[in-house]
Structure formats: C-alpha cells, structure tokens
Amino acid sequence: MTREEAFVIDFPRAIRICGQVIGIAAAIGAICLFAVLLYFNPYVKAEPGTDTSLTVLLMVAAAVFGIVASVKARPFWILIVFFVSFFPIGFYFLGTPGIFKWIGVCNIGFLVSAVLMRVGNCLKLQKEQGEKTSSGL
To answer: For residues 28 and 63, what is the distance between their CA atoms, to the nearest angstrom?
Structure first.
C-alpha cells in the first residue's frame, strides 16, 4: 500500500458514519430534554400528571430505539422514529419559545440521520456497481 492509498477517504462510509453519529446525538439529546421536561421543568412547578409521564416514557422509548437503529445503521427504522416522535410531540415543541424547542430540533436530527445513511448506502451501491462494470471489461 502506497502513501496515497493510505489517505483515500471512503466517502460513502464517511457519510453513513456521520448519519450514525447525528442519530445517536439526536436521541441522547431528546432523552436528556425529556428528562428535564419530566423532572426539572423550569416552567411548571406542579408534579407531572400520568398522561405527561406516559407520553415522555413513550418518547424516550422511541429515542432509545433510535439509538439502536443508528448503531446498526438502519435508515428506514430511524425514519420511523422520526415520524413517531416528531409529528405528535416534536412539531409542537418546535413552536414553543423555551428550551423544549430543542426536542423538535433533535427529532429533525433523526430525519437528517436517516437521509445521510440512505445517501451513503446509495453511493456505496453505485460505487460497487461501477467497480463491477469496470473490472468486467
């Protein structure tokens, strides 16, 4: 292996890894913000109700599933997590003026993650098909 070959960047793999990192970061951010919403909410002094606790539990479960899907690089499942978490809750929080708007931003991170992983997978397939046709000549 020459020095030039050692520094060649595999762009499809790099794009997929960026997607994975964004997905994991978005999920961890959402989990942290939901914990703040439930236990340390600066806007409400009352104890959270059962409906709030159940909603937060389901959104945390979706974020944990997002971590697993990001680690395994499954863009379809991350897209499912985006739809499940963004449209009922994240879209609402995106319009609020407080710190919880970042829940919506973290949910959009799931979409960005899924798109990057899908683009990386498509580029990988395109690169492999190009290598097959050029080696077959």
So the answer is: 7
Residue 58: predicted pLDDT: 95
What span, in angstroms and rounded, lies between the C-alpha atoms of 26 and 74? 15
**pLDDT 10s digits, 78-107:** 999 999 999 989 999 999 989 999 999 999
Q: Which helix (H) or strand (E) holds 87?
A: none
What pLDDT, in 10s, does the model give residues 17-34?
999 999 999 999 999 999
> Hey, what are 9's tokens?
């960047």
Q: What are phi and psi of 43, to 5 degrees?
A: -100, -15
Query: Which residues have a Cβ under 8 Å from the Cβ of 121 and sit 6 or more positions away?
Result: 12, 16, 75
The CA distances from residue 5 to 9, 86, 115, in Å, are 9, 43, 29
What's the CA dihedral at 116, 119, 120, 125 to 10 degrees? 160
Give domain limits for the chain.
12-135
